[in-house]
Specification:
Strand content of chain A: 15-25%
Number of helices of chain A: 5
Order of helices and strands of chain A: HHHHEEEEHE
Largest interface: A-B, 32 and 32 residues
Mean pLDDT of chain A: 93
Number of domains of chain A: 2
Structural class of chain A: alpha+beta
Radius of gyration of chain A: 17 Å
Number of strands of chain A: 5
Strand order of the largest sheet of chain A: 4-3-5
CATH class of the largest domain in chain A: Mainly Alpha
Oligomer: homodimer
Chain lengths: 143, 143
DNA sequence: ATTTTAAATGCAAATCATTCGCATAAGCTT
DNA sequence: AAGCTTATGCGAATGATTTGCATTTAAAAT
């Protein structure tokens, strides 16, 4: 039912333990809910998915856990237009997003060339890029 | 005191009238406050700047006016990280933004090549881009 | 210029997403 | 198993933005 090998969960858990992050029932429920998500869920969506594994999880804990996971670099927070923040596991190489305006679907893509150009632009302006955000909003081409 | 030729205000006004937008004292105060801003003010900042011209302006009206102006394509709304939305007059050619993480300064830039690559990527994914958002977050290079 | 009519305004209350305070519960160290 | 420290759930607080409503006002009609 999950779209990822469950092995990743154990890895994530030990990585987090190694960083001194306490592993609680709720945190594991949230983490596995996220690992089992093929989309980019909101905190609210993650809450209901996590509750399937542990009904005691509260929304506040989802937010607090996500903060911890984002701090540790385990999770990425995206703020697309419209909805609240959307989260994803940071276990894939860097990518940007294309959002389907009709369905809300989020498609991942990446472009070495765009990244390179961004660096060049920042360089010319005398800046070092710490991070960036690139989102394309569009609709499927009518053929 | 303004960084733009005031001529633009009259143009904006007649364009808006032509679109059937009612011109009120408050709307003019907000519009001219924005035209006189060299930065990317928030609604709150715009409120205090507009109040210098017309003290009767309220925050609700700033928001309502900005909505109208965004709808009409006169104003662009940006949602950078951290603060609330920031606005700018849509009288310049398209550009993206680099945000200085230390000062909050917003620098505009544009890259034909990046735009082109975005189009190509969307094309490959079967999409037409309606709009996009590209923001670089960084700090000045230590020399 | 005055009336008319639909739309804009100010104010305060309502939303929405997210955060926080606090008393209780539960990890992790020994 | 005991103790210390951090995490949790709950509900209240926050911050940005929106909305309902009674009142004012811009622009159209007279």
């Amino acid at each position: 039912m999950t779209h990822r090998d469950p092995k990743i969960l154990n890895e994530l858990e030990s990585d987090l333990r190694a960083e001194g992050v306490r592993i609680t029932r709720q945190r594991m429920a949230i983490l596995s809910a996220l690992a089992g998500s093929a989309d980019h869920p909101t905190a609210e969506e993650l809450l209901s998915r996590a509750r399937e594994k542990d009904p005691s999880v509260s929304l506040a804990t989802v937010y607090r856990t996500l903060s911890v996971l984002v701090e540790s670099g385990t999770v990425l927070r995206n703020e697309f237009e419209g909805t609240g923040a959307r989260f994803e596991l940071a276990d894939k190489p860097h990518h940007d997003h294309l959002i389907d305006l009709d369905t809300g679907d989020v498609i991942e893509f990446s472009s070495k060339r765009i990244e390179k150009l961004q660096e060049e632009i920042a360089e010319e302006l005398g800046y070092d890029i710490v991070y960036h955000r690139l989102e394309l909003y569009g609709r499927t081409k009518k053929t």
